[in-house]
Write a structure and sequence with these properties.
heterodimer, A: Aldehyde Oxidoreductase, domain 4, seven-stranded mixed sheet, B: alpha+beta, Uridine Diphospho-n-acetylenolpyruvylglucosamine Reductase, domain 2, Uridine Diphospho-n-acetylenolpyruvylglucosamine Reductase, domain 3, 3 domains, five-stranded antiparallel sheet, four-stranded antiparallel sheet
Chain lengths: 768, 287
């Protein structure tokens, strides 16, 4: 990896350095506590009875045999849980979610939906008791494809919402004059695109533990990215004040966005614990993470764009349909973000976009890294490649001509800061000597005449923060201890990204203490300041700025106290590496501990700083250059090499940023080539809900990745110009692979995943 | 994990008696890498498992030039995989062993277990069939030896009668004039179940193919031979045109199904591609 920085250089002590992660030893030794590791005295185990039918009304449920089974302590059905219509994901002050769920309903909307829950003294007994619950269903006609769901005679999945199986009213974005734009065009490209149903398949299956105390207070451990959201919705649905719900999350084994819902099992776990007056744990099997987790929205996209012969884009008309599955979850947010993203990336003044989100009788789709934008930019970027082909241009040249520039209006409605995308693209072209790659000798290797090589480029941009859909707020509290160490309190979840390390770096840098002297307290809603949750690539950007603000206040207070002790004016001293010194006489200093401690009748200091930050949004940029080998006899595609060039503003922790980029590429390769959670279109049953047949690429399948991080376009909204990086890589890799496959075999694919069978079929059609 | 009872057998006779007495839903437990997953995922109903790992005499590996390679029922995939002899003499088997599951699984799973599970996509079966392996079967009244190609009767089904136990497998010696290959086709490079697997074992005599066996995995109810394709190749120089015709014939001889891993048509296509490639790879031994 190399970090190239054309921006202002400061003498950073900690920021920009790959310090040892604060949790690395714990994780490597296995001492880190995950929710699944927790065992409480008297703890029961909960399991969920899941429907083996896609759409039905429950005529009756008989739980008598299950209740009588030795070891079973409670059984819940729709008949004995509170009936409260609630949001799946309750983001505050936002239109991004839909209120369409009950804890348990008398209706089943997808194969695998929970219809009852059991608590028993062991997981085995709970599991066995599920078979003793007898459910009688009245089958209803079901729909599994968004096309079918919007037909006038389609069965309605919900009574709420705008009707017609729409999750929300169509999202429309218009800029300029679309008709005038097309009238100006020398040629028009029109195509349909579609995306599969990739699943995040995080390492740690969803898990929670509920425990009520004698004061009727619920303590709730759960693997969530949004602990305060879970607290809020649990309190609302259970009818409790927030003081009576404490949500705890320590370490997490990933989430990728999908763990920002409040899940059915979380309510059921809390209710089973309440019913039995004993702690209850519920842990998903891998199978359940598929059927009851959240996947990326499958999509259908129609895209028509007008171009001039010089490559100028003059009109973009786009219709997007996202398949929400059986519930709304993040459908509205995904639709709004994914649709409005298409105003940008490649400049176009005349834009007409329409996004729809549709219910089907399939497992729920939710938030997932790339949040609707993976889908829309896949279409935009591939069609740009097609336009280049039509023009006889190098796609790099056409993309360079059209990528967004500083001052262009971003999807958020704000002007874009910096030429990040242009710089990333140009940098990659230079590093790879793209012209010579394009003009390379394309004669197949006589020893492997069936192999073809191709190179492709994929461009993307992605916002840090969910603004304007959500008016975000980042909070941090920094406390200076009397020995000179520092405690940061943050609600930001540590889902495995290294966010807490980055936050500690920011505090240490701003305050002038050593990184090792900053401790991070997180994941206890009774203790840490309110947090919106870890999503939207925003933790470093948003909470990082709040932490910097809080640390700055503490720094000022410490300097004021030291000035008093040193008997100098506060302007005359500075704080660095834990020492407060007189600027003019660096030999005259005291440690932070000395400044904080008691002396001559002055008690020890209690210095606490709070930071609250409400950002708009910054955009990060990336261009991926990807080499593939295509076996024209088997249809197998191997990604050989990726050169990802990212602008993420100021880099806080280079190795963590690189890890995000490499991980996103791995996930994106899977989504583009091998990963698809398949639902049987006749029954709605899951066909590969497990890691045997849901094919994630593994380390052996990974290409060489040469990460380049440019600090090209810092954003003043983030700490020292830092921006997000989490979601960007997964967006750029997909179209770069599809474009590389076209370069290799001359066939255009408009969908993902692109399977070996698709390749062979297309080659045959092309040959015929 | 569903509950089951665990029994530890001291001898073959003991294991066989338990198998008979404990009735249905009783299974031998060896490496457990498949059985435990099946129990956990509720794919197989199991009331009793009989652990045979303590039975003496089932861990041996022997080789001689006349009898060939013999390994016992407790020999793990990993142990066989690391054997220099296997690498040198049975490169097709070695390829299959090395492609099975993960390193951890291979250090636990046994070859005989992989064979007895009788999955049409099992990696070790095609090379063993292509090499003409035999399977040794114990019963209290009668020991018998069955050609592996006649051992399977369907997916998950074998000729084993109640109380019978496989004690080991013998693979005939590999002569200096033999060439072997196993090609596994899947979506990724490791931790993968075969979409199609093709094993070839051939002998060349003065540039002419004196014998060839082709075994096709994951394209039928059991691992299949391709007898008509083999017949087209015997007595030829294995020139490109003949190999192509035989590969086409193998496509006709297989009976694949469609499932979430691949369509039947694609599997059949891959039989054609991989049969040709496997023959060419086996011939590289003589190059």
């Amino acid at each position: 990896m190399n970090v190239t920085t054309p921006i202002e250089q400061r003498d950073f002590k900690i920021v920009g350095k790959s310090v040892k992660r604060e949790d690395v030893v714990e994780k490597v030794t296995g001492e880190a506590q995950y929710t699944g590791d927790i065992k409480l005295p008297g703890m029961l185990h909960g399991k969920i009875k899941r429907a083996a039918i896609a759409h039905a009304r429950i005529k009756s449920i008989d739980v008598s045999k299950a209740l009588a089974y030795p070891g079973v302590k409670a059984v819940l059905t729709h008949e004995n849980v509170p009936r409260v219509l609630h949001y799946g994901s309750p983001h505050p002050r936002s239109a991004s979610c839909t209120k369409d769920q009950y804890i348990l309903d008398d209706k089943v909307r997808f194969w695998g939906e929970g219809v009852a829950a059991v608590a028993a003294i062991s997981e085995e007994i709970a599991d066995e008791a599920l078979d003793l619950i007898e459910v009688e269903y009245e089958a209803l006609p079901a729909v599994f494809e968004p096309e079918d769901a919007v037909l006038p005679d389609a069965p309605l999945i919900h009574d709420v919402g705008p009707g017609g199986n729409l999750v929300l009213d169509p999202v429309r974005v218009n800029r300029g004059d679309i008709e005038a734009g097309f009238a100006e065009a020398d040629f028009v490209l029109e195509g349909t695109f579609s995306g599969g149903r990739p699943h995040p398949a995080y390492m740690e299956p969803n898990v929670c533990i509920a425990d009520w105390d004698g004061t009727n207070k619920l303590t709730f451990w759960t693997s969530t990215q949004t602990s305060f959201m879970v607290r809020g919705i649990l309190a609302e649905v259970l009818g409790l004040p927030l003081t009576k719900v404490r949500v705890l999350v320590d370490h997490m084994g990933g989430g990728f966005g999908a763990k920002q819902d409040c899940f059915q099992h979380e309510f059921l776990c809390a209710l089973l614990a309440k019913e039995t007056r004993r702690p209850v744990k519920m842990e998903f099997t891998r199978h359940e993470t598929f059927i009851a987790g959240r996947a990326r929205h499958p999509c259908r996209i129609w895209l028509k764009q007008g171009f001039k012969n010089d490559g100028t884009l003059v009109a973009r008309d786009m219709k997007l349909v996202y398949d929400s599955g059986a519930y709304g979850s993040h459908g509205p947010g995904v639709t709004i973000v994914g649709t409005s993203a298409a105003t940008s990336l490649y400049r176009c003044e005349n834009v007409r976009l329409e996004g729809r989100c549709v219910y089907t009788n399939t497992p729920i789709n939710g938030a997932f890294r790339g949040y609707g934008v993976v889908q829309s930019y896949y279409a935009l970027d591939i069609q740009m490649d097609e336009a280049a082909e039509r023009l006889g241009m190098d796609p790099a040249e056409l993309k360079l001509k059209n990528v967004v520039r500083a001052g262009d209006i971003a999807p958020s409605g704000h002007p874009i800061l910096g030429h990040g995308l242009e710089i990333c693209l140009q940098h990659g072209l230079d590093v790879l000597d793209w012209k010579s790659l394009r003009n390379r000798d394309r004669t197949p290797d006589p020893k492997r005449p069936h192999m073809r090589k191709g190179w492709g480029i994929g461009c993307e941009m992605h916002g840090s923060s969910a603004y304007p859909g959500i008016k975000e707020q980042g909070n941090a509290t920094v406390k200076m201890n009397e020995d000179g160490t520092v405690t940061l309190l943050t609600g930001a979840a540590g889902l495995g990204t290294g966010a807490h390390t980055a936050l500690a770096q920011i505090v240490a840098e701003e305050l002038g203490v050593r990184f090792e002297d900053v401790g991070v307290i997180h994941g206890d809603t009774d203790v840490v300041p309110w947090d919106i949750g870890a999503f939207a690539s925003h933790t470093t950007y948003l909470v990082g700025t709040a932490a910097k603000m809080a640390a700055g206040k503490v720094r000022t207070a410490v300097l004021e106290r030291a000035a008093m002790k040193l008997q100098v004016a506060v302007e005359e001293i500075d704080l660095s590496e834990g020492r407060i010194f007189v600027i003019a006489e660096p030999g005259r200093f005291m440690t932070v501990a000395e400044a904080m401690g008691p002396s001559r009748g002055i008690p020890a200091a209690n210095i606490v700083g709070n930071g609250t930050y409400q950002p708009t949004k910054s955009y990060s940029f990336a261009v991926h250059f990807t080499e593939v080998d295509v076996d024209t006899e088997t249809g197998l595609v191997e990604v050989k090499r990726v050169v990802p060039v990212h602008d993420v503003g100021r880099v806080i922790h280079p190795i963590a940023a690189q890890g995000q980029i490499e991980g996103g590429i791995q996930q994106g390769i899977g989504h583009t080539l091998t990963e698809d959670y398949v639902i049987d279109k006749k029954t709605g049953r899951s066909l590969n809900a497990g890691l045997v047949d849901y094919k994630m690429p593994l380390s052996m399948d990974m290409p060489d990745i040469e990460t380049i991080i440019l600090e090209a376009a810092p954003d003043p909204g983030g700490p020292w110009g830092a921006k997000g990086v989490g979601e960007d890589p997964i967006i750029a890799i997909g179209p770069s692979i599809a474009n590389a496959i076209h370069d290799a075999i001359g066939v255009r694919f408009h969908h993902y995943p692109i399977t070996p069978e698709d390749i062979l079929k297309a080659l045959r059609e092309k040959g015929a | 994990m569903r509950r089951f009872d665990y029994h530890r057998a001291e001898t073959l006779e003991h294991a066989s008696r338990l198998l008979t007495e404990l009735g249905d839903d009783t299974f031998l437990f060896n490496g457990g890498t498949d059985l435990l997953v099946e129990i956990r995922e509720r794919l197989r109903r199991v009331r009793n498992v009989i652990d045979i790992k303590g039975i003496p005499g089932l861990s041996d590996i022997t080789y001689d030039e006349t009898r060939g390679l013999t390994f016992g029922a407790l020999v793990t995939v990993g142990r066989l995989e690391r054997l220099a002899l296997v690498r040198q003499r049975y490169p097709n088997l070695r390829e299959a062993l090395a492609s099975l599951g993960s390193i951890q699984v291979r250090n636990r799973a046994t070859v005989v277990g992989n064979v007895c599970r009788a999955s049409p996509s099992a990696d070790t079966i095609p090379p063993l069939i292509a090499d003409g392996a035999f399977i040794h079967i114990y019963s209290p009244t009668n020991m018998r030896v069955v050609p592996l190609s006649e051992f399977f009767t369907g997916p998950g089904r074998t000729v084993l009668a109640k109380g019978e136990i496989v004690t080991g497998i013998t693979v005939p010696p590999a002569g200096d004039n033999t060439g072997k290959a196993y090609l596994k086709h899947g979506r990724r490079k490791a931790m993968e179940l075969s979409t199609v697997g093709v094993a070839v074992s051939l002998s060349m005599d003065d540039g002419v193919c004196s014998d060839i066996r082709i075994a096709l995995g994951a394209v039928g109810a059991t691992v299949l031979r391709a007898p008509q394709a083999e017949a087209m190749l015997r007595g030829t120089t294995l020139d490109a045109a003949t190999v192509k015709n035989a590969a086409d014939k193998a496509m006709e001889e297989c009976t694949p199904i469609s499932n979430v891993r691949a369509s039947a048509d694609y599997r059949r296509d891959m039989v054609g591609v991989l049969t040709g490639r496997a023959i060419r790879q086996a011939l590289e031994t003589f190059a």
